[in-house]
């Protein structure tokens, strides 16, 4: 594995599968009474979150601690950035503390890649604007891989806010790399122009989910939308929300996913999120295991 993980393109297909296999090992370890292992003993992981996060931040922090690493938590709201210190000077201050791995989330695309130029350690992109979220892509693909035994040939329908999602780029890249068939379904105003030509698009949810093995919802990214791009959330849910009435005629062995946090009644209805087909909570568990596997791969590298 390369020194940094900024996008899925930093990984080969074989490296992704190795992360999956190692993630399965760590997931088994997490079922034990004693869950801690010494793999990263003596290493320091810096958690640099320049915007709010619950699942990703806690997952990375717990993954580092489960592997016996020391952690440093950085919060932009209580840092010298409030005193007009530049990001570069902030990073150089942290670099003086001899951090080995930086986990970075930032609202602006490109900041994790920029940090790789000024530090000696490794950088993991934990989400940069609407650009990428590679570890979410890895855990999503791992969840599918674990459930079906393989990803190749599966039909995956992704519904919701495609345009402003940082998850979608990483999910599209990893699922295509692993041989899945993708269909996106959303309002035309929520479709960007960068979508890979191998990905299908429809505004008809019944058509999108008809043969889908996996149905994934994407959160409505209200904080990134700069205008009223849909009439209202109720109308969006009517036409594009994951609802029982929309997937009533589906085959029985599909799974429902969502990277979270979910907006019940907008991109997904509560009865679907809590149904037997839902693996949303399992994605959280898999996020911990796969992030441990990513730390392991970087450390081994």
What does this structure look like?
The structure is a single chain. The protein contains 10 helices and 9 strands. It has 301 residues and is an alpha/beta fold. The strands form 2 sheets. It has a 5-stranded parallel β-sheet with strand order 7-6-5-8-9. A 4-stranded parallel β-sheet has the order 2-1-3-4. The radius of gyration is 19 Å and the shape is globular. The mean pLDDT is 90.
Which key features would you list for this structure?
alpha/beta; Rossmann fold; 2 domains; 4-stranded parallel sheet; 9 strands; 16% strand
Mean pLDDT: 90
Q: Can you give the helix content as a percent range?
A: 25-40%
CATH architecture annotation of the largest domain: 3-Layer(aba) Sandwich
Give the low-pLDDT segments: none
CATH superfamily of the largest domain: Aspartate/ornithine carbamoyltransferase
Note the gap between the termini.
6 Å
* Main CATH class of the largest domain: Alpha Beta
Strand order of the largest sheet: 7-6-5-8-9
**CATH fold assignment of the largest domain:** Rossmann fold
Structural class: alpha/beta
Question: Tell me about the biggest sheet?
Answer: 5 strands, parallel
Give the tally of β-strands. Answer: 9
The coarse silhouette is: globular
Output the radius of gyration: 19 Å
Order of helices and strands: HEHEHEHEHEHEEHEHEHH
How many H/I helical runs?
Answer: 10
What number of domains? 2
Topology of this protein?
Blueprint: H1 13-29, E1 44-49, H2 55-66, E2 70-75, H3 87-95, E3 101-106, H4 111-115, E4 122-128, H5 134-148, E5 155-160, H6 167-177, E6 181-185, E7 200-202, H7 205-209, E8 214-218, H8 233-240, E9 255-257, H9 270-273, H10 280-300
Helix pairs in contact: 1-5, 1-10, 2-10, 5-6, 5-10
């Amino acid at each position: 594995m390369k020194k940094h993980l900024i996008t899925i393109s930093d990984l080969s297909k074989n490296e992704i599968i190795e992360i999956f296999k190692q993630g399965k090992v760590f997931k088994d370890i997490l079922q034990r009474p004693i869950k801690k292992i010494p793999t990263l003993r003596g290493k320091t992981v810096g958690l640099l979150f320049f915007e709010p996060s619950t699942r990703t931040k806690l997952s990375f922090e717990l993954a580092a601690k489960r592997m016996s690493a020391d952690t440093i938590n950085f919060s932009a709201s209580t840092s010298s950035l409030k005193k007009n210190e530049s990001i570069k000077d902030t990073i150089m201050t942290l670099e003086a503390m001899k951090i080995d791995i930086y986990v970075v989330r930032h609202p602006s695309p490109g900041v994790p890649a920029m940090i790789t130029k000024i530090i000696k350690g490794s950088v993991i992109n934990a989400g940069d604007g609407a650009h990428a979220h590679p570890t979410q892509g890895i855990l999503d693909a791992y969840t599918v891989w674990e459930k079906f035994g393989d990803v190749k040939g599966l039909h995956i329908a992704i519904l919701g806010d495609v345009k402003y999602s940082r998850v979608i780029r990483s999910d599209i890249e990893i699922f295509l790399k692993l041989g899945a068939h993708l269909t996106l379904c959303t309002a035309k105003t929520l479709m960007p122009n960068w979508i890979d030509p191998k990905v299908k698009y429809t505004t008809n949810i019944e058509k999108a989910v008809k043969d889908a093995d996996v149905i994934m919802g994407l959160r409505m990214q209200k904080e990134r939308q700069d205008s009223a791009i849909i009439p209202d959330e109720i109308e969006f849910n009517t036409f594009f929300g994951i609802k029982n009435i929309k997937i009533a005629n589906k085959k029985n062995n599909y799974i429902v996913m969502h990277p979270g946090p979910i907006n019940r009644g907008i991109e997904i209805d509560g009865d679907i999120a809590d149904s037997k087909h839902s693996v949303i909570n399992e994605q959280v568990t898999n996020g911990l295991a796969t992030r441990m596997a990513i730390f392991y791969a970087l450390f081994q590298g």
